[in-house]
Amino acid sequence: MLRIAVFVSGGGTNLQALIDAQKAGKNPNGEIALVLSSSKKAYALERARQNGIATEILPRRQYATVDAYDEALLQIMERYRIDLVVLAGFMCILGSKFTKAYDRRIINVHPSLIPSFCGDGFYGIHVHEAALSYGVKVTGATVHFVNEITDGGQIIMQKAVDVLPNDTPETLQRRVMEEAEWVILPKTVQLICNGEIQ
Ligand code: GAR
How many other CB atoms sit within 10 Å of the CB of residue 66? Predict the structure, then answer.
């Protein structure tokens, strides 16, 4: 049984997809043991509490350096005996201390088809604004391993989503979540917990 920590900063719809999959018995070899938020205001925390999942709040600005933040995160990971870290809308960059300690044990969901619209500055709604202003006709989501390069780790799963003529950043964001993120993130977590992806 892998003990999973889900790192969040906002609404937590991807966290909800993971909780729903677990409740539906789709991940018998994994258990969400912790939800860690960079913000005390994140609605994701409420979702965790409603489901009896332990929570921790660790704002990045309380730490002087990336190294100090990584160290604090690692201590929490040890305390909860975490095997797998899932970044689900986590808006802080992890340092190499953390990514090296959890090499191939951290995954992230990103709301575009990497290598498009990724890297520094591409997060949340900005990704969809960029996709629309570029004029792509197909976008999607990517789940990848996390290393020290932002959105640069090995790709595990992707799913394409059509851009429609009247899309706004918000309608596109919603469709990418529904059709891609909420599908490929729980699927990837399940495959890792089953030992089918290493
Ligand atoms: C999701 O679209 C996720 O892919 C994105 O933030 C949103 C979080 O939504 N993550 C990134 O942009 C990371 N670079 P949620 O809190 O409802 O899951």
Answer: 16
Give me the tens of pLDDT residue by residue for the chain, a chain 198 residues long: 999 999 999 999 999 999 999 999 999 999 999 999 999 999 999 999 999 999 999 999 999 999 999 999 999 999 999 999 999 999 999 999 999 999 999 999 999 999 999 999 999 999 999 999 999 999 999 999 999 999 999 999 999 999 999 999 999 999 999 999 999 999 999 999 999 999
Active site residues: 110
Probe target for ligand 1 pocket from 14, 122, 171, with the most ligand atoms within 8 Å of CB: 14
Tell me how crowded residue 52 is: count the other CB atoms within 10 A of its CB: 6
Is the CB of 90 inside a 6 Å radius of any atom of ligand 1? no
3-class DSSP state for residue 141?
A: strand
DSSP 8-class letter at 88: S
Task: Provide the strand spans (E) within 48-175.
Answer: 55-57, 84-87, 106-110, 138-145, 155-162
